[in-house]
Amino acid sequence: MTYQPGPYLTPDYMLPYWEPVYYQQEYQMYSMMTPEYYPSLWTPLVHQSNSESQEDSGVVSEDDEKEEEVLEKGSCPPPTLTVHQANEILGTPIPERCPDTKKIANRITEWLKTSKTHQKEFSENVIGRSQGTLSSILKTPKPWKAMHCGREVFIRMYNFMRISEEERKQIMNLQLNLPKSTRQPRVSNRRFTRVQKECLDGLVERIEKPSKEIKRVISRELGLPESTVHNYFMNARRKLKYD
Prior knowledge:
By secondary structure, the chain is mainly α. The chain has helices at 50-57, 62-73, 83-90, 101-114, 119-127, 131-139, 151-160, 165-174, 194-206, 212-222, 226-242; strands at 3-5, 18-21, 26-29, 42-44. Helices cover 50% and strands 6% of the residues. Keywords: DNA-binding, Homeobox, Nucleus, Transcription, Transcription regulation.
């Protein structure tokens, strides 16, 4: 093993162990101050690693060639995303300030055109909705504050446009569409009985905007859910507005 003097084995610190060289202002170590006699004052040299020895010898390993190839391309390839990671990225909460839903929709529309991605593929793989729903959202996006449900779609689209193009391609290939068992069941159109229809039409003519208490009474008397009563009055007001 090869040795070198320790950090304090110098004339400035260990002068008694050094002897002057005559006619010169220099010192040399006593002949007995060797690693064999005083190993604590010496530091063993660390052997060179295999990689260092390969560099010195000019031999390039296969790993080094791969690394150089990646560096020549400009950047390392992104890691492969799993379904869980992709869903976490797309579901990340967005800033508290109200996002511009129209701007998000325009960016998605532009990306679909430039990437030549079909709406059906995007709607099923990214937002878990039908093509018709996506088409409607992109054409007439509702303001963020006006949405009680459906914000998740814009959250996923917002996060989708924040990631790199390579990550978008990976997500599109992962098929993140939700299984049918986890999707919300579609509510079928309710058919009212003749009595229910006549009562509701008569109440709409008398009361344009009933209070919550009145809606609750109507719901109980007609045997209808409160949400159904609320929607009936709301649709009736819209119809009168356009007529």
